[in-house]
Every structure is written in structure tokens, then in C-alpha cells.
From TrEMBL:
It comes from the Bacteria. InterPro entries: NAD(P)-bd_dom_sf, Sc_DH/Rdtase_CS, SDR_fam. PROSITE patterns: ADH_SHORT. GO terms for molecular function: oxidoreductase activity. Keywords: Oxidoreductase. This is SDR family oxidoreductase.
Length: 250
């Protein structure tokens, strides 16, 4: 996928998990492209640092600190966006938890439920609350961050893989529902191995200096958020820089 300069002037973007890592980089890149970024995360301090950097770059942001498992807060976000903007142009569902890396029989129920709540249910609640606003845009774009985990089904990664597999099915169904007669386009994006805190937790012995950085991936997400983007229901794979279709079983 060849990068090109994208203008998002006067467009409104929601980014979840925006206080660090991939979410931070994507929010900053969207703001640099001209979007007004509504940044959500649990960490107030990280959001304030993002806001300072966005302003230093000449952009604008609104901070919305809350936990994505506070589903009523997601509904309040949708209502506030409607009152202020009357639409939403971009949703980037980035926030996610790694959860326990352990045999499935050893996963604690509270860890299972928390990881499922953040990685899957919260994204459904975002769709539920923000879909009318995305449809009100002339070119609503939704990008959900996934992983290679659901396709590899590795030992001890069952919890994380299951939540991302569910997210992929959710996003693809949403893409199918909005493909015809709406301006909404929905993509999944796999960043691959990047130098992030989540990756460090998953691979504690890995040398992160050899990994690509979230700032390298962010412009690709910006492209998928552009009104010029027409693909929907597909997967953008950053390691191979390619857009892939999901194949039905033989």
C-alpha cells in the first residue's frame, strides 16, 4: 500500500487507547493530517501529553478519559459527539489488552472477562453508539486493530487470540451491513511486531530496538481513514504492506 499525503481537514476522529503506543501515534498522525481528534484512554496523564504534542504541531484534540468497560460512558461519548458535531468521520478502535498468556485451563475468570470486555465488547458498544454518527458523515471510516494471533492459534495465547478472532468477525459483519447504501467503510489492521509496551510484556526477552515503531504504522491507518479509501471488510497487514481478503473455508 503506497503512502500518500492525506488531508483530513474538518474531519472528526475518535481514537481509543490513545494515551500511549499505537493509539498515541495514530491520534497524533490524524491530528497532523487535519482531523480534530477525540482521544480516549484510562490514563489522564498520557492523554494530556498527547494533547500538548498535538497542539505543538498545530492540531486540535478533545480528551475523554474513561475506561472502555464503562459502557454508559461510551453512550455518553456518542451523545456528546452528536451534540457538538452532529457526525463522526473516523473511529479507530485501538485499545486492547493482552490478557493472561497461560494454558486456557489456568486463565482466571476475571482476566477472561476483562480481556473480552475491552477487546471485543467495548468495540461492539462503540459501533452501537457511534454507527449513526458514522453514517451521518459523507465518508465514515472505522479501523479496528487486530493481530496475527487468531490465525496462528498458538499455545498459551488462547485468550488474546479468541478476543481478536471475535473482533475480526464483528468488524467484518459491520462492514457487510454498511457496504451498500451507506458511506461507511470498515477495515481491520494488523500492525505486526512493533515496539510497544504490550509487545514487551508478551516477549520480555526481545530486543525492541530491532522492531519497527508505532509512528511508522500510523500513516497507514491515516490512509484508511481518508474519504478516498474505498476498501471495506478487508485486512491491512503492515508487515507485508498489503490489503488482504478473508477467504471462506473450502
Amino acid at each position: 500500500m503506497t503512502s500518500h499525503l492525506v488531508s483530513l481537514t474538518d474531519r472528526v476522529a475518535v481514537v481509543t487507547g490513545a494515551s500511549r503506543g499505537i493509539g498515541y501515534a495514530v491520534a497524533l498522525a490524524l491530528a497532523k493530517a487535519g482531523a480534530h481528534v477525540v482521544a480516549t484512554a484510562r490514563t489522564q496523564g498520557g492523554l494530556e501529553e498527547l494533547d500538548d504534542q498535538i497542539k505543538a504541531e498545530g492540531g486540535s484534540a478533545t480528551l475523554a478519559p474513561f475506561d472502555l468497560t464503562d459502557y454508559e460512558a461510551i453512550d455518553r461519548l456518542g451523545a456528546a459527539l452528536f451534540q457538538r458535531f452532529g457526525k463522526l468521520d473516523i473511529l479507530v478502535g485501538n485499545a486492547g489488552l493482552l490478557g493472561a498468556l497461560s494454558p486456557l485451563g489456568h486463565v482466571e475468570p476475571k482476566d477472561w472477562e476483562r480481556t473480552l470486555a475491552v477487546n471485543l465488547t467495548a468495540n461492539w458498544r462503540l459501533i452501537r453508539s457511534l454507527d449513526p454518527l458514522l453514517r451521518a458523515s459523507d465518508a465514515g471510516r472505522a479501523v479496528f486493530l487486530t493481530s496475527g494471533a487468531p490465525h496462528k492459534a498458538r499455545a498459551y495465547w488462547g485468550l488474546y487470540a479468541a478476543t481478536k478472532a471475535g473482533l475480526e468477525a464483528l468488524a467484518r459483519a459491520y462492514a457487510a451491513e454498511t457496504k451498500n447504501l451507506t458511506p461507511v467503510r470498515v477495515m481491520l489492521a494488523n500492525p505486526g511486531p512493533l515496539a510497544t509496551a504490550m509487545r514487551k510484556r508478551a516477549m520480555p526477552g526481545e530486543d525492541q530496538s530491532a522492531l519497527r515503531k508505532p509512528a511508522e504504522f500510523a500513516p497507514k491507518v491515516v490512509e484508511m481513514c481518508s474519504p478516498d479509501w474505498t476498501e471495506t471488510g478487508r485486512l491491512y497487514d503492515f508487515p507485508s504492506d498489503s490489503v488482504k481478503s478473508f477467504r471462506a473455508p473450502e
